[in-house]
Amino acid sequence: MSFFHSRRLLLILTLFSAAAILVLSLLPDPPDLLPRITYIDKIGHWAAYTVLTGLLVLLIRDRFKSAVAVFGLAVGACLVYGGLIEVFQSTTGRSPEFLDLGADLLGALCGAGSALLVLRSIGRKSDQGSDQRANRSGV
Q1: Buried b (16+ CB within 10 A) or exposed e, 47-58
Q2: 125, exposed or middle or buried, with CB in 10 Å at 0-12, 13-18, 19+?
C-alpha cells in the first residue's frame, strides 16, 4: 500500500497538522524561535496551510468525482479554519491579522494545487505503465 493510498496515515497526518497549527496559533506568547526576518510569521502561515491543505486533498480526493470540488472544499475548509483561529486569537492576548489569513489562503491554494498536480502526475505515470504492459503482452 502506497503512502497516497494509506487513508489512516493521511488522516493522522492531517489531524496532527491541524492540531499543531491550532496550538501554535493560540499560544499566548509565541516562542521566539524564528529568526528576525520581516514577515517570517506569514511565511510560517503559508507553509503550514500548504501542508495542511495538501494533506486534506489527498485525504478527500476519492470522495468526490471532480478535482474542482476537492480543490474548493479543501481550500474553503482550511480558510474557515484559519479564520476561526484568527478570531479566537483575541482570547489569548494575541491580535488577529488579515495578513495572516491572506497567508493562510495563499498556502491553501498552493497546497491544494500541488497535491492535485502530484495526483495527476501519478495517475498519468500509472496509466502509461499500464499501456506499456498491455503493448508488451500484445493486448
Answers
A1: ebbbbbbbbbbb
A2: exposed
Model pTM? 0.82
Counting the structural domains of the chain, the total is 1
The residue segments making up the domain with residue 68 are 3-25+38-127
3-class DSSP state of 20: helix
| Distance (Å, whole) CA 115 – CA 54 | 5
How far apart are the C-alpha atoms of 59 and 69, rounded to whole Å? 13
C-alpha cell at 47: 507553509
- Count other C-beta atoms under 10 Å from residue 131's C-beta: 11
CA distance 74 to 49: 11
Residue 60, pLDDT score: 95
pLDDT tens per residue, range 31-70: 666 566 677 789 999 999 999 999 999 999 999 989 999 9
